[in-house]
Design a protein that fits this description.
There is one protein chain. By secondary structure, this protein is α+β, with helices and mostly antiparallel strands. It has five helices and nine strands; from the N terminus they run αβββααββββββαα. It has helices at residues 2-15, 44-62, 64-71, 139-145, 157-177; strands spanning 26-31, 37-38, 41-42, 77-84, 93-103, 108-116, 119-128, 131-132, 135-136. A five-stranded antiparallel beta sheet has the order 1-5-6-7-4, covered by helices on one side. It has a two-stranded antiparallel ribbon with strand order 2-3. The protein has a two-stranded antiparallel sheet with strand order 8-9. A hairpin with a 4-residue loop joins strand 5 (93-103) and strand 6. The longest helix has 21 residues, at 157-177. The model has no long low-confidence stretch (mean pLDDT 88).
């Protein structure tokens, strides 16, 4: 229930914040509450919810969220690569920094960094897609419907690295599945 509240709060706050372009980074703050922790550190599930709140803030402030609702688009996550650098502790204040890292014909790669007092605690790259029903929405259609700024098309090396690790995992899984 508290995680839903975190997402709704992010949605409402984003509606009253300054609009941004696709090139900008959205920064949202949160605090680690008792419902977020296992023993004394923040659990992985609330960390994912904090990153989701960052994506909601980003989508609302770029105008993408409103267009997506009108067009009946949704955004499933295909994969996520997360590095947990250091734990977040009870009542610690932190911020999620969200930005679109790269877009190609199939995927949107979003980067999230969770920081506190200038130190990185979590770094993640999320690979997602925009869909309507079972169909993938062409990025040319997304761009046509939005004035979202320059689309990042220079593929960062980290994405190639993540994709190659995924291919290794899939090859191993398919060998051991049968």
């Amino acid at each position: 229930m508290f995680r839903l509240l975190r997402l709704v709060t992010a949605l409402v706050h984003a509606m009253f914040r300054k609009k941004i372009t696709l090139e900008d980074e959205a920064v949202t703050t949160f605090r680690v509450w008792p419902t977020d922790v296992d023993a004394s550190i923040m659990n992985h599930a609330p960390i994912m919810t904090a990153m989701e709140a960052g994506r909601v803030d980003y989508m609302v402030r770029t105008g993408f969220f409103t267009t997506a609702i009108k067009q009946q688009w949704y955004f499933p996550i295909a994969s996520m690569s997360v590095q947990f650098v250091r734990p977040l502790k009870l009542f610690q204040k932190a911020e999620v920094k969200t930005k679109v890292l790269f877009i190609d014909d199939k995927w949107i790669f979003t980067q999230h960094s969770i920081e506190s007092k200038g130190k990185c605690h979590v770094d993640a790259i999320v690979k997602s897609v925009v869909k309507k029903g079972r169909d993938r929405v062409a990025y040319s259609e997304i761009v046509d419907r939005l004035s979202i700024g320059k689309i990042p098309t220079n593929r960062p090396e980290i994405i190639s690295h993540i994709e190659s690790e995924k291919a290794i995992f899939e090859a191993h899984f398919s060998r051991n599945a049968g």
